[in-house]
Amino acid sequence: MTATKLFIIGFVVCSLIVVIPMLRRLPGRHYDIYHFLIGIYFRLLPENVHREQMLFLESNFHYFRKLPSNEKKFFLYRLMVFKSIKRFSGHNDMVVTKEMKQLVAASAIQLTFGLDDYMMIWYRDIKLHPEGYPFRLLNEWARFQGHSDPRNGVVVFSWKHFQDGYLNPDDARNLGLHEMAHALHHHEAEFDSNPHYSQQYEQWLYHAIAEYERIKNGEERFLRDYAATNMDEMLAVCIECFFETPQKFKEANPELYEQTCLLLRQDPLAMQARLA
């Protein structure tokens, strides 16, 4: 690597060290500056760094393996941005490794890969517990696997259950996608950073209510009962099924499947067909 290249990388890294804490406090177009800087950094990184991260995702993230090579680079770029603007922490002396950060960030990029804004900047912190943890909700304590806290901008996961979601890629249960879906929806409700999402959500909701009522009435349906808790959970459970059992989803409710495709601007079945 030339001295000039090393100098540019050093300058960009120093700039990012200064800029990132500011951006965490200043939502908005300040992120254009950040994208410019990290775009330079990403292009100047040695090829072996990209290759190492690509190999890790190829081995550990099913969604990434199905992407064409040009989209894999785009996915990796988004992952780098997302990961760098979040604060990761572990509970009960849990050490959060770079691999854990990669996988949690990858779940967010998977969900938002079709959207223009993927950073969910209001959610600044991601906290990991080794396993299920006690959490107080409505004056009652329960054991949680994960939750999103829009008030404080935090997404929380049980690492055990997060891993289980990706170790079983076709059981329609994925904690990472579930909680990131909550975070995305709450972020859009507050900031409307993807105007398309807010507009399309009204159409999605129209079709989802009918499925919601079927679950409430005990009729035949393809979603698990938890989806009928409220419409936020309906969305999160739909998204789990959308990515993990898309064929079953489409066969059971083609209209709702199509609306979810339009909402997220991606189609898992089209991705599968492309690989066939």
Any chance you could write out the topology, listing elements then pairs?
Layout: H1 3-25, H2 30-44, H3 47-60, H4 62-65, H5 69-84, E1 87-90, H6 98-112, E2 125-129, E3 133-137, E4 140-144, E5 146-149, E6 154-158, H7 159-167, H8 175-191, H9 195-216, H10 231-244, H11 246-252, H12 254-264, H13 268-275
Parallel strand pairs: 1-2, 2-6
Antiparallel strand pairs: 3-4, 5-6
Helix pairs in contact: 1-2, 5-6, 6-8, 8-10, 9-12, 10-11, 11-12
Description:
63% of the residues lie in helices and 10% in strands. The protein is α/β, with parallel strands linked by helices. The strands form two sheets. A four-stranded mixed sheet has the order 1-2-6-5. The chain has a two-stranded antiparallel ribbon with strand order 3-4. A hairpin with a 2-residue loop joins strand 3 (133-137) and strand 4. Helix 8 (175-191) crosses helix 10. Mean pLDDT is 86; it is low at 23-29.
